Amino acid sequence: MKNNLEHSEAAAIFNKDVKRVDWHDETLWFVREKRDKAAFQIPEWELLRETASEIKNNVLSNIHDYLLEFESNAQKNGVIIHWAADADEHNKIVHSIMEKHGVKQMVKSKSMLTEECHLNEYLFEKGIDVIDSDLGERIVQFRKEPPSHIVLPAIHLKKEDVSETFHEHLGTEKGNNDPQYLTEAARLHLRDAFLTRKVALTGVNFAIAETGEIVVCTNEGNADMGVHLADVHIACMGFEKIIPQRKHLSVFLRLLARSATGQPITTFSSHFKTPRDGKEMHIVIVDNGRTTQLGREDFRSSLKCIRCGACMNTCPVYRRSGGHSYHNAVAGPIGSILAPNLDMSKNADLPFASTLCGSCTNVCPVKIDIHDQLYKWRQVLVKEGHTPLGKTVAMKGMATVLANPMVFDFAGKAGRFVMKNIPILVNNSLNPWYKQREMPAPPEESFREWYKKNAKESKDKQNE
Amino acid sequence: MKIGLFIPCYVDQFYPKVAIATYELLQKLGCDVRFPIKQTCCGQPMANSGYEHLTKGCDTNFIANFSEFDYIVCPSGSCVLHVKEHLHDENNEALASQMRKRVFELTEFITDILKIEMIPGNFPHKVGMHQSCHGQRGLKLSQMTELNAPFFSKPEQLLSKIKGINLVSLSRKDECCGFGGTFCVTEEAISVKMGQDRIKDHEDHQVEYITGGDMSCLMHLEGILKRQKSPIKIIHIAEILNATI
């Protein structure tokens, strides 16, 4: 990862460039609005979401059987199936396939799983050269950055940044920011990779148990181009990508692209079922913490995620903090409920990087209760001791005051006295509220003091 | 019908005028309303920070203060949502569960329980409505823009019938203001940026007032407006409704 800063620290740095934050926010909001437009053209949109959610619930409850069904059908199709318990095993399996074929170069289309497993870094260490063929991913790969968004990996960059990157790595004209010119340069560069690389790796959007086939959705056709020109196709998937039957695909394909980018469907929805004559097809099915997450009752439904990114586009915090501030392969609200499962102490800040506004839950095409899970992760992280001591002390103090009416009354009076008479104690640079906001003006009396004097009912007087 | 007035702790301390407006408004609407004097806080500040296990004292105190009332009414969607979702009593869960159903946010209490469709009055101003996320997406006081579903809004239903009011339609109808409880200090940069952007949307529509159902959002926006020396004023919906009736 690029940095190890806490989300709030990275977000504060991101916010120093106001114009760029505004641009980032507006760009992603544009995608959210496009999503609304596409979704609302379908009268049964909410029913579709519910149906997808139910299908995924069924999958999670029967995952063992569906995985075995998928394995057996895929094997009948001539596919070689591998099982990986964790990221390390996944990386080793992929490398062993490369070694078996004596190949040192790979072309790879988008796969968030391989980002999660840090496959590129692993293969680099082993002397294997990987070219990411998704345009956005290629851009961030040149810059040695992780993707900042699962669907729009280079959304944190402007065309000027891309121009500079391409000038450095592809020798394009300095200062030429014309998107068509830049895309053409990338196209020529990638064309060479497609034509020469013998191993192509892809992700998996859906794996159909009934038929043993996988479906990969792209807009650029780069997955197909890579696979069709290579001798070996390796497809890597988290085990939750299973859907029971082909007919269920119609539900998910209608939801995926509309939720992701506001398109009715991705340009390519490619089905891969069986290797061509003389070629090989491998599928690596990865656990990497998913079994643990499946066993966490409050968090298991996070595994319903189809990686559309809608929760990121709608998240007011993500739009203003950028994907890298989440220091995890999957950023945004969904990343913040997946990451603590992988490493609680490293990702303890993420469930707090939210106002719990709930917009993520509403756009989620498979109805994951994302904001409720953020709340629940906070409780778990505190109980497991991943919060700073100072915060715990403060919270305990607060709990004592708020549980005792007499103390509360006294603390309130004392607080207002201080704000009125010694404002510097509150209004100083150590108070993060005061940095860019005024404190509320303390009133003469609290409501309860007013009430004691003014309430009309005699009964209330007795209450005093 | 005995109504217990539940006033958020920070409103009691910093915005007594909002509590007074709520109290007076309910009385004008014919309610027998009382403020149990020993109430403190619903416990949300701790719970949202991950310390829900420290809120038992708040729960006990809340139940002791409010169990006798037929309805518990509060001028805050956020505090009501917290009680609805998290009020518990180890010794009498049946009572806690019953009380969770008896707690209402002010505007939904007026439209759904009192069944009052309009509050007469005059408020000749250009107003922007900032609906709190907890009120909207949590309590479903109004429709959410993410859903493909018909529009409704309980607070706007009341506001729109006031004479002279010019309720503007914001560009981002239900964007969060960035307050978020302790988020407003732990994620200071984002919180303020969200608030500034929310204000910008209101400025672009030339409002005189920003109103809403949650003083916490409004306190955050007010803090930014004051720092910017903006002429835009903050007013809780209870204050508008109470002033006009």
From TrEMBL, chain A:
One of its GO terms (molecular function) is 4 iron, 4 sulfur cluster binding. One of its GO terms (biological process) is lactate metabolic process. Residues 445-464 have a biased composition (Basic and acidic residues). Transmembrane segments: none annotated. The keyword Metal-binding applies. Keywords: 4Fe-4S, Electron transport, Iron, Iron-sulfur, Metal-binding, Repeat, Transport. Pfam families: Fer4_8 (PF13183), LUD_dom (PF02589), LutB_C (PF11870). Residues 295-325 form the 4Fe-4S ferredoxin-type domain. Residues 437-464 are annotated as: Disordered. It comes from the Bacteria. This is Lactate utilization protein.
Automatic annotation (TrEMBL), chain B:
One of its GO terms (cellular component) is cytosol. Transmembrane segments: none annotated. One of its GO terms (molecular function) is oxidoreductase activity. It comes from the Bacteria. Pfam families: CCG. Residues 4-83, 127-221 form the Cysteine-rich domain. PANTHER family: LACTATE UTILIZATION PROTEIN A (PTHR30296:SF0), UNCHARACTERIZED PROTEIN YKGE (PTHR30296). This is (Fe-S)-binding protein.
